[in-house]
Amino acid sequence: MPDLAADMDTIREIEAIPGREIFSEASDSNKDMRKPDVYFTIPMLDGEIGNVALFAEQQHEPDATLPLRVFETYIRLREKKRLKTTCFVIYTGSAPNINTFSESCYGCEVSMKYRTYFLPEKDADELRADRRPFAPVMLAGRLSLEAGDNIKLREKYATEILKVTNELDYDYEQKPFILDFAKSIFRLNDPEISDSLRKEYNMQTVSLEEYRKEVYRETERLDAIEEGKIEVARSLLADGMTPELVAKHTRLPINEVQALKPHS
Question: Closest by alpha carbon to 66, among 105, 106, 42, 94?
Fold first, then answer.
């Protein structure tokens, strides 16, 4: 997305938005929709924190579910965050025209278009020549589609990704993430895969496992803090404190506090 990249303020940090801030935990219909999606608040050069980008990665779900999922997520982002939103889909399925949602109901027409990175049509040689960290990830995905269940091809292409990743100057976070993705998509835990290749991947992704454990611990800590705030907010509301004061003292969003207020 070069146009978005050109307008981003690269000095300021991109912040991830937890899925629970977008989808209600009480909504059973949307629980599965959160899992493959990632949401970011993106600072812009004009000083605004005006763009929230959704990267919805489509892997194995039926093609028909994707446009609706992207549309509903877009609407929820606009409703919850009140920010400009762009959607970007990395798609590995079989339907090339998957970049539009449209619905009609007795004269009411709804249509939404979004960008789609349609992996099956990407040229593998162009991805091999691309030096950005995104490229070997997509190359692994592209080659895995070609390899299918062929053990020899999976080993061949996994070895290629290992070689490419080691030759390029990726940092200590990028490299293990690329290799961990390749390990998963080429299914290197399959017992038919050679032990030496599996061990090489496991050795080079061990730092990622430690990183994930640390992220998991931090997520648990933040979740505990959030739950504590919610319990305090409920208690204060029950004691008669106004939602505005509760929001101020707990630093919870006012709409979340109002949702916790017991109904009389």
Answer: 94
Structural domain for 245, as ranges: 226-264
For the record, the structure tokens of 65 come out as 């579910």
Question: In the listed set 121, 136, 155, which residue is the last one of a domain according to the structure?
Answer: 121
Characterise 224 by phi-psi region: left (phi > 0), alpha (psi -120 to 50), beta (else).
Answer: alpha
Q: Are residues 26 and 78 in the same domain?
A: yes
The Cα–Cα gap between 250 and 231 comes to: 10
Q: How far is CA 68 from CA 56, 74, 81, 100, 113, in A?
A: 12, 10, 20, 9, 11
- For the sheet containing 15-16, what is the strand order? 15-16, 37-42, 51-58, 84-91, 115-118
- Copy the structure tokens of residue 31: 């629980």
12 and 76 inside one domain? yes
Place of tokens 């053990």: 151
Cα separation, 112 vs 103, in Å, equals 9
Q: What is the pLDDT of residue 34?
A: 41
For residues 20 and 107, membership in a common domain is answered with yes
- With cut-offs at 50, 70 and 90, classify the pLDDT of residue 24: low
Based on the fold, state whether residues 66 and 174 are members of the same structural domain.
no
pLDDT at 28 over 50: no
Count of domains for the chain: 3
As given in the structure block, the two tokens for residue 151 are: 């053990």
Q: Is residue 140 part of a domain?
A: yes
Strands (E), 74-147: 84-91, 100-105, 108-113, 115-118
The answer, yes or no, to whether residue 55 has pLDDT greater than 70, is no
Alpha-carbon gap, residue 41 to 50, rounded angstroms: 8
